[in-house]
Design goal:
The chain is α/β, with parallel strands linked by helices. The chain contains 44 helices and 14 strands. The strands form 3 sheets. It has a 6-stranded parallel beta sheet with strand order 6-8-9-10-7-11, with helices on both faces. A 5-stranded parallel beta sheet has the order 2-1-3-4-5. A 3-stranded antiparallel beta sheet has the order 12-14-13.
Length: 993
């Protein structure tokens, strides 16, 4: 049958709320085929019986399609026999009116066979649609057809970003009215103001409602992101975590910069415009109001604070359970209870969801009758120490919590020991792997037996989960799979504090020591291996809670040093600096100024200072150590060489290049003699020599050192080691600075792919690779590609590190020179002026980076027609660079090219000619006749010769320059074309990392 011959039909789709994404998707697909569909959520509790509820469905116009799953049959408290009877009755009375699709492979009532169900479990969208159409006896020749109307996502396809949404509660009961009102409030809100606050008592189920909504409507969002919002630091951290998922850098920058980037991306709807953010547990509106996103997405807030009503959000009350909901929930939680006993418990607890969860969980595994348990509750209620009685709720959650913890303490000692261990990790998520893998040495006796017995361990954990003391969280897999496999255990902050506060100092010390051993045992041991970084990331949050920073145990101290090394390598400089500062104070007081561990700490401390731009502090710290070790051990000792290398690295940042070169070459020779040519320390030293040679303008020597280091690292370490990848970037930079642009571009394109794959797209080293790629693209003539790369890196670096961060200033300088030639000249000036201010403040007026960027600003003024001001700045840069680096450094020669150009346009032709002749002569000697800067100087000299009437000599230099440019760069390269058009060339100063 063809589509044109098919008449539109009507269908009613009956579904459990849990399976709403499937019902919506099936309805959309049927509508795309021209049919009319009505959705009907299945709620048998509203009808006298199952048969009547099914009969009501049959009375609707059109065929009825049942979306079956375990949740369809557990929507009430009906037995399997009741279901079988109802299904047989209705299918006999209404033959051919019912059809079914099935979303599970679990056993279902036997009478389902009469529905001739078709299975959709585990299928892709094409096969699922095909089976639906075939079951409904509809044409299948247009499977996947679209009319252009945007529909919901296929339920087996999770949102593009699914961020730590709590595991779906398989016992979630009722709340359909609340979820319906929530959906309507979000849908009906004005554009940009879809914010709903779920309000209610603690434990009433606000979080559960938000979680269930996220799962039910997941197919309608591209991003679903969960933000714990109990306090502002945690809220900001989790909101910042969204940055890398949106294609923004996570990096080491301030949360403020990252959050601003996230909010702007959400407002613009780029890259995703269908998003849902849930801020869970925000009782202080002031903590969140300025962080609420605007745009085309939805926001849900859960809170106990009615003040949200005055903050431009729609307030939606989450009430206590209705009695039928309470009974259904209790009987799912405690299978041994009858309907009457469930009603008795619900009556006593006034349908308070969290209290029902905890008490029913306790009763599920206890022989105590409901009556006896209620007497226990009343006895506890007589003591006002653990309760807050109100007219609205006479048995509040603290009472149930107190009974719960007492029950654990008195009846489940293993669970209590495990709970006490948990509270010496940081509040929040603790990876179960940490708790299951550490050895039983040096732990309290009562814990040792538990650790060594996996059965007892699991039983204890299950008890804590059963009584809702802790919560298990799962990995982010497909939505329909409920979130994946167990990963972390989470303890509520209130329980965390109560348990920890009730421990004696002796108990606390012993348990904290045990947790420190847990963390140290989980140390992967190789912070330089990027494959192990996720494991280090799991450990960092718990260092302070467990007292690692102040530990006197050498094993724990070494573990902490590994963590700090990881933070440096991973680009988390600020976290490293904070932890290093705290540890430095503790260790100096405990161990003394000159202890080996204090010295080891200083390397990480100084590294964080240097990378964050605190060069003076880093120089003082590193020089002190280098001088002391040199005096004590001599300058050929391995530890002395390390200290000298660290000091020399800071000298590079403060532009003491020649002093740094002497020290670094000394260290390289020493390491090579003591350890051999292929030792990793030797290779690090050789890499440092390459860096200083590059900064000194000795590009061929630097490249050869980088290339040799790269080849050795590939052999000794591995191709994808972070140090090897760094050498690859160095080689690409060397090729570019030597003018071998095509080779540089090819190497850097491949290098960027490797860095992004191994380290992630937003790792600082990956950004460095992408920045160099942008520069390679520009020098190779791909102007558009260069601009896109440089702009992207600058935006991400600014968000992560801030505008005055050394790396950001470097990228900004290069982007401004790009804009001067190919973009917005006014924006180029603004950025150039900011870069000059930043470098002068951070490095001083005499630093080459301050000097060079002043020259760049002069070129911007030249382009804007301010010729005298441009001349002043370019002459200033030339004088400054000569003083800082001498007459023969490439940066000095570049400043000379620019100064000569400004002399020319201000009619100082003779002075311009003299400077151009001298510059070409020196450039040929320093860089060689075919280097792009030499050819730039030659074309510039030809222009100055023409200005003074020396046409024959000018033509000679112009012809020679054009011939060399065509040979080295190509006849159509942008530099060749500009020279052919007699556009005077200038030189851009490039700060180097």
């Amino acid at each position: 049958m063809t589509h044109s011959a098919v008449h539109a039909q009507r269908f009613v789709i009956s579904f459990a709320g849990f399976n709403r994404p499937w019902a919506v998707w099936i309805a959309h697909r049927l509508e795309e085929h021209g049919h009319r569909v009505t959705l009907q959520r299945w709620d048998p509790q509203r009808s006298p019986g199952l048969a009547d509820a099914l009969d009501d469905l049959a009375r609707a116009a059109g065929r009825v399609l049942l979306v079956l799953s375990e949740r369809y049959f557990s929507a009430g408290t009906h037995t399997e026999e009741e279901w079988n009877t109802a299904l047989r009755t209705v299918t006999e009375a209404h033959p051919d009116r019912f059809a079914a699709v099935c979303l599970t492979d679990a056993p279902l009532p036997t009478a389902v066979a009469a529905l001739e169900k078709t299975d959709l479990w585990g299928l892709d969208s094409y096969e699922a649609e095909y089976r639906v159409l075939r079951r409904l006896e509809l044409p299948t020749d247009r499977v996947g057809a679209e009319t252009g109307r945007r529909g919901p996502r296929f339920p087996n396809d999770p949102p593009e970003i699914w961020g730590r949404v709590p595991r779906r509660n398989p016992r979630f009961t009722g709340r359909n009215d609340v979820i319906g009102r929530l959906r309507a409030a979000l849908a009906d809100a004005p554009a940009g103001a879809s914010i709903v606050t779920l309000l209610g008592l603690s434990g009433v189920g606000k979080t559960q409602v938000a979680t269930e909504y996220a799962y039910r409507f997941a197919s309608e969002y591209d991003v679903v992101w969960w933000v714990p919002a109990e306090d502002r630091p945690t809220l900001r951290e989790r909101l910042a975590d969204l940055a890398p998922a949106l294609g923004l850098p996570r990096g080491a920058g301030s949360y403020g910069e990252q959050i601003r980037g996230v909010l702007e991306a959400l407002r613009r709807g780029n890259p995703y415009h269908r998003w849902l953010l849930v801020f869970d547990g925000c009782d202080s509106p002031d903590d969140l109001t300025d962080l609420l996103p605007a745009g085309s997405g939805d926001v849900i807030i859960t809170s106990r604070n009615r003040e949200w009503a005055s903050r431009h959000t729609h307030l939606l009350e989450v009430p206590l359970y209705a009695r039928p909901e309470s009974i259904t929930f209790i009987r799912r939680r405690a299978l041994r209870l009858t309907g009457e006993e469930a009603d008795q418990l619900a009556e006593a607890l006034e349908d308070y969801p969290l209290a029902l969860d905890q008490t029913a969980g306790w009763l599920a595994d206890s022989p105590l009758t409901v009556g006896d348990y209620l007497q226990l509750l009343r006895r506890r209620l007589d003591s006002r120490e653990a309760v807050t009685v109100s007219d609205d709720y006479p048995l509040p959650f603290p009472t149930a919590l107190a009974i719960l913890l007492n029950n654990v303490r008195e009846n489940y000692p293993d669970a209590l020991h495990l709970l006490r261990l948990f509270v010496f990790f940081a509040p929040g998520r603790v990876p179960l792997r940490l708790l299951r893998e550490f050895p039983a040495d040096d732990v309290p006796e009562q814990l040792a037996g538990l650790i060594n017995d996996q059965v007892r361990w699991n039983a204890a954990l299950n008890k804590l989960v059963q009584f809702s003391v802790v919560r298990l969280e799962y990995s982010d897999l497909a939505v329909e799979e409920g979130g994946g496999g167990t990963e972390t255990v989470q303890l509520h902050r209130m329980v965390h504090g109560i348990v920890r506060d009730n421990l004696s100092d002796e108990e606390a010390d012993q348990l904290a020591r045990a947790v420190r051993q847990v963390l140290a045992a989980a140390d992967p041991g190789r912070p330089t291996d990027s494959r192990l970084w996720p494991r280090y990331a799991e450990l960092i949050p718990h260092l302070e809670s467990a007292g690692v920073l102040a530990s006197s145990n050498p094993r724990i101290q070494n573990f902490l040093l590994h963590c700090l090394r990881y933070l440096i390598l991973a680009g988390e400089y600020r976290t490293c600096l904070r932890l290093a500062e705290e540890t430095d104070d503790a260790w100096r007081a405990m161990l003394g100024e000159h202890h080996d561990q204090v010295r080891e700490l200083s390397y990480h401390y100084g590294g964080a200072l240097r990378l964050l731009g605190h060069f003076r502090r880093a120089e003082v710290l590193s020089k002190t150590i280098a001088d002391r070790l040199t005096a004590e051990r001599g300058d050929r000792d391995l530890e002395t060489l390390r200290a000298i290398s660290t000091y020399a690295a800071v000298l590079l940042n403060t532009a003491k290049f020649e002093q740094a070169r002497l020290l670094l070459e000394h260290c390289f020779a020493g390491y090579r003699e003591l350890l051999g040519e292929d030792d990793s320390m030797t290779l690090n030293a050789q890499n440092n020599v390459a860096v200083v040679l590059r900064l000194l303008g000795r590009y061929p020597e630097s490249y050869e050192a980088d290339l040799d280091t790269l080849r050795r690292r590939e052999r000794v370490l591995r191709v994808r080691h972070i140090a090897t990848l760094s050498s690859g970037i160095g080689c690409a930079m060397g090729l570019r600075l030597m003018g071998r642009y095509r080779e540089a571009l090819a190497r850097q394109e491949q290098g960027l792919k490797l860095n992004a794959t191994v380290l992630g797209e937003n790792h600082p080293q990956t950004l460095r690779a992408e920045h160099n790629l942008g520069m390679c693209l520009r020098r190779s003539g791909d102007i558009a590609g260069a601009g896109a790369r440089l702009r992207s890196v600058l935006e991400r670096s600014t968000r992560v590190h801030g505008a005055t961060f050394p790396w950001t200033l470097m990228v900004a300088s290069d982007y401004a020179t790009y804009l001067r030639e190919y973009g917005d000249i006014d924006e180029a000036r603004r950025i150039s002026e900011e870069v000059v201010r930043g470098y002068q403040t951070q490095l001083g007026l005499a630093h080459p980076y301050s000097i060079g960027t002043v020259g760049n600003l002069g070129l911007v003024l030249r382009a804007q027609g301010e010729r005298e001001a441009a001349l002043s700045l370019c002459e200033q840069a030339l004088v400054g660079m000569r003083g800082a680096l001498g007459d023969r450094h490439p940066w000095t020669l570049g400043c000379a090219v620019n100064a000569a150009g400004c002399r020319n346009i201000t009619d100082r032709f003779a002075d311009a000619l003299d400077l151009s002749r001298d510059t070409l002569r020196t450039t040929e000697q320093v860089l060689g006749g075919d280097h792009p800067m030499t050819l730039t100087a030659q074309i510039a000299l030809a222009a100055d010769l023409r200005s003074t009437g020396r046409m024959e000599e000018a033509q000679k230099h112009e012809d020679a320059g054009l011939k060399s440019l065509a040979r080295t760069l190509g006849p159509q390269h942008v530099h060749t074309v500009s020279a052919r058009q007699r556009m005077r060339p200038y030189w851009d100063f490039e700060p180097q990392p």
